[in-house]
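Problem 12. The chain below contains 261 residues. Write out its predicted structure in token notation.
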Amino acid sequence: MALANGVLVHGPRHWACAIRLEDGGLEVASGLKPLRASEIENRFIRGPARMAEIFALLPEIRRRLPAAQLPFQRPAVAAAMVGSAAAVRLVRGSRLSAAAQEVFAAALAVGPAAVAMRGSNLASYHGAEHISIGTYEHGEERAKEHERCGSHLLGPLLLTSAIGNAVATRAPASVRPAARAAAGVGALAASVELFSWMVQNQNNPLARALAMPGHELQHRFVTAEPTPEQLEVANLALDECVRLESAANGDNGAAEEAPPT
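Solution.
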């Protein structure tokens, strides 16, 4: 996760966060993750847990690094998210077809926040995160877009949400709210599993098609070329996370699993 003044990197068991202070100094904090989705084998639970484990880290980051500026603290991003949520509720209550609702809801959910991020330090640190981790994984300098960025969930989530809600609308009115809630959780779980398949089959035509919306979102809005100072911060967070994972594995080499973006 990119911050407005730093980068959070997490591996299977540990996390590390580095930030740049206003006076130019650096601060780093790291530790064991309170929630570890890598230890969950149930596929229905594992998907939502992978998302939840990131947010479970935020209170610890705030405690250990008070100067860290989380993405949602930026006024433009926060305002865009509130406006998006209100617009999505209107779309959900409209007479549009289930498929059309999902298309508009997906665009409204990410579009305003993506525009608000464009050209900001948050977008630059997002690019630094991708370059640092991509270079580590591939052993050569990489671009600011990364194949495992969470933005690539957009395509799978759009597809699975449309299917889930189409099924939920057929449920009796008395249980329809519960059916929609279950469809939402199921869509998230299926999207994460589908996303994992996409990463492992990047040359597959379906994988490329599903990744295209997320890639365009990355390329045009939510990442920017970082400065050398921002890349230094990302590398510092990555090195600390790899160090912790390597120590947990009992060796001095690379971590058992590459840290996710």
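Discussion. The chain has two domains: 1-71+227-261, 75-119+145-222. Students who got a different answer should revisit the alignment rule from Section 12.3.
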